[in-house]
């Protein structure tokens, strides 16, 4: 089963599942898309490994560009509409629960994930570049905002490296 949409009123059993996830801290990657709650599991081993490697590889370039890295933050306007990128880079350290924008967001593809469906949301919130990593294809793609949407680019204008540079620098999981 890929997804289930439950219209209001939400049954007590589903509310109980959401509350249990919150109580156990299992909701760190859950998102709300215009009031629709998306239950998202935490990253598996290869995903978590790649996230760590990307942070190590991208941090020096981000620091040189005056950006600050953050993982698993709520990008959006509030509890009824936000996304949680795998990580991202901001101009200042976030102090709020709902971070209104990011300069760069990083998404690592997982089976059945919704990365590409988030692009319009990211554009609306002023994200300048999106990095999409595909562990299956062992690929890294850079998307730059242009006229309210995104175009794929061969390199990052912000961090000054190419897709190929990063693909070569990553030690990909088996």
| Estimated structural class | alpha+beta
- Compute the number of strand runs: 11
CA-based gyration radius: 16 Å
Mean pLDDT score = 91
User: Biggest sheet: strands side by side, in what order?
Assistant: 3-6-8-9-10-11
The description of the largest β-sheet is:
6 strands, mixed
- The number of distinct helices, counting runs of at least 4 residues, comes to 4
Q: What portion of residues belong to β-strands?
A: 25-35%
> Uncertain segments of ≥5 residues (pLDDT<50)?
none
* Morphology call: globular
- Portion of residues within helices: 25-40%
Written as H for each helix and E for each strand, in order along the chain, the element string is: HEEHEEEEEEHEEEH
Can you give a write-up of this model?
This protein is of the alpha+beta class. It is built from four helices and eleven strands. It has helices at residues 12-24, 45-64, 119-124, 163-169; strands at residues 31-33, 36-38, 68-71, 74-78, 81-83, 87-90, 98-99, 104-108, 129-134, 139-146, 149-153. The strands form three sheets. The protein has a six-stranded mixed beta sheet with strand order 3-6-8-9-10-11. It has a three-stranded mixed beta sheet with strand order 5-4-7, with no helix packed on it. The radius of gyration is 16 Å and the shape is globular. The model has no long low-confidence stretch (mean pLDDT 91).
């Amino acid at each position: 089963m890929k997804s289930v949409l439950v219209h209001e009123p939400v049954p007590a059993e589903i509310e109980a599942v959401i509350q249990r996830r919150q109580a156990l801290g299992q909701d760190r990657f859950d998102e709300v898309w215009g009031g629709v709650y998306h239950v998202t599991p935490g990253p598996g081993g290869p995903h978590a490994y790649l996230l760590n490697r990307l942070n190590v590889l991208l941090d020096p370039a981000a620091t040189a560009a005056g950006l600050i890295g953050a993982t698993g933050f709520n990008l959006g306007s509030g509890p009824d509409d936000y996304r949680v990128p795998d990580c991202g880079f901001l101009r200042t350290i976030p102090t709020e629960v709902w971070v209104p924008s990011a300069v760069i967001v990083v998404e690592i593809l997982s089976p059945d994930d919704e990365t590409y469906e988030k692009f319009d949301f990211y554009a609306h919130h002023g994200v300048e570049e999106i990095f999409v990593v595909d562990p299956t294809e062992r690929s890294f793609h850079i998307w730059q905002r242009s006229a309210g949407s995104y175009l794929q680019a061969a390199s990052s204008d912000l961090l000054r490296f190419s897709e190929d540079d990063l693909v070569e620098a990553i030690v990909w999981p088996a």
